[in-house]
Automatic annotation (TrEMBL):
Keywords: Repeat, Transducer, WD repeat
Protein name in UniProt: Guanine nucleotide-binding protein subunit beta
Superkingdom assignment: Eukaryota
GO terms under cellular component: plasma membrane
InterPro entries (UniProt xref): G-protein_beta_1-5, WD40/YVTN_repeat-like_dom_sf, WD40_G-protein_beta-like, WD40_PAC1, WD40_repeat_CS, WD40_repeat_dom_sf, WD40_rpt
Length: 432
């Protein structure tokens, strides 16, 4: 068979695949008779009241000399690790803005970083196609640098994302430009499972992001340059459990919803989307209105949910950080327009373990720690499945009355009421 014939067959096969995808998309649209926002607004629900003082920038973390690419919080403490183009990882005390560690990397082109669940070690990866693990308790050298405790090698492309499996300091998942995700044993440095690659259900382009479910640690999702998100089970590496379509560009960010049954995503197409892990359906699209002052349409670089899930924080390439009300799909605040905001692209966002603070990283070389105000501590209601208990976690801030919200059971469009309650917590132990 000649090269021309092969090209012709390839073009025909591509056209067939695209036609089938379009038919599938149309079929899904027929099955989706509504979305979360339409249903909520039909019940008279309105956006949460989120003012300029409800999230205040209390600390600007300065110290990097290059663009900040990634950040991560410790699960229970007030520590942040950040990765920058200056070739360093910096561990910060978010309460005081002091640096506890400044780790010089052998490869300056770092793209991701993550804290271990116990907060005793950090991992990072980048263009060296490896994931390096550092024990923060290790003895430093003369220059104050911490030696690498483990190098996880095996990827054939850059390492774009990494995350520890919840409550397992010895298990780490990485995503790579080689179109695969890998589960590692950090203790031995060996690969346990490879997700994608030679398997036909894997990604067909670079993996850019991943997120592990907090309620089902064996499940994780990955976002890719192939415009799809895939669901994986750590116990079954041979195939993706489900593929989610909807985006028209690279999926730069994925993040599980607090209930572990849904997840959000952000893409180069400028939209955020909410998907249901169980049904495979898209629940909502969060699209910003074009700004006539924008030279080009901003892309979504990162997403994070409030501890209740009612609010979604989305970072954009133009320096905006939108606070979305996930229930009615409306922007309730733009942190990029507030005083002391970032001056360049927002590359990463992350919420502290207790949900009381938001940290953003930017190409302006800085990170900003934002504290939730006393009148609205980022609870903003919740979206949970029917018949589950509704609890507001203990906080160090005084919390006012929680308004009644009708919640949505996404799979069945059932609704139920969350009773009005008032919670009081103790005094603030430390302020930022």
């Amino acid at each position: 068979m000649s090269v021309a014939e092969l090209k012709e067959k390839h073009a025909a096969a591509t056209a067939t695949v695209n036609a089938l995808r379009e038919r599938l998309k149309q079929r899904r649209q027929l099955l989706l008779d509504t979305d979360v926002a339409t249903y909520a607004k039909g019940l008279g629900r309105s956006p949460v009241n989120f003012g300029a003082t409800d999230l205040v920038c209390c600390r600007t973390l300065q110290g990097h000399t290059g663009k900040v690419y990634a950040l991560d919080w410790t699960p229970e403490k007030n520590w942040i690790v950040s990765a920058s183009q200056d070739g360093r990882l910096i561990v910060w005390n978010a309460l005081t803005s002091q640096k506890t560690h400044a780790i010089k990397l052998h490869c300056p082109w770092v793209m991701t970083c993550a804290f271990a669940p116990n907060g005793q070690s950090v991992a990072c990866g980048g263009l060296d196609s490896a994931c390096s693990v550092f024990n923060l308790g290790s003895q430093s050298d003369r220059d104050g640098n911490i030696p690498v405790s483990r190098i996880l090698s095996g990827h054939k492309g850059y390492v774009s994302c990494c995350q520890y499996v919840p409550d397992q300091e010895t298990r780490l998942i990485t995503g790579s430009g080689d179109q695969t995700c890998v589960l590692w044993d950090v203790t031995t440095g060996q690969r346990i499972s490879i997700f994608g690659g030679e398997f036909p259900s894997g990604h067909t382009a670079d993996v850019l992001s991943l997120s592990i479910s907090s309620t089902s640690p064996n499940m994780f999702v990955s976002g890719s340059c192939d415009s799809t998100i895939r669901l994986w089970d750590l116990r079954i590496a041979s195939r993706a459990g489900r593929t989610y379509h909807g985006h028209d560009g690279d999926v730069n960010a994925v993040r599980f919803f607090p209930d572990g049954l849904r997840f959000g995503s952000g893409s180069d197409d400028g939209t955020c989307r909410l998907f249901d892990m169980r049904t495979g359906h898209q629940l909502q699209v969060y699209a910003r209105q074009p700004d006539k002052n924008d030279d080009e349409f901003p892309t979504v670089t990162s997403v994070a949910f409030s501890i209740s899930g009612r609010l979604m924080f989305a970072g954009y390439s133009n320096g905006d950080c939108y606070v979305w009300d996930t229930l009615v799909a409306e922007v309730v605040q733009n942190l990029g327009t507030l005083q002391n905001s970032h001056e360049a692209r927002i590359s990463c966002v992350g919420l502290s373990g207790d949900g009381s603070a938001l940290c953003t990283g930017s190409y302006d070389k800085n990170l900003k720690a934002n504290m939730c105000g006393a009148e609205n501590p980022c609870t903003g209601g919740t979206m949970i499945t029917a018949n589950e208990n509704f609890e507001v976690p203990r906080r160090t801030l005084r919390v006012g009355p929680i308004a009644k919200y009708t919640m949505i059971k996404a799979a069945t469009n059932e609704s139920f009421e969350v009773p009005r309650r008032t919670f009081r917590a103790g005094p603030i132990a430390k302020t930022m």
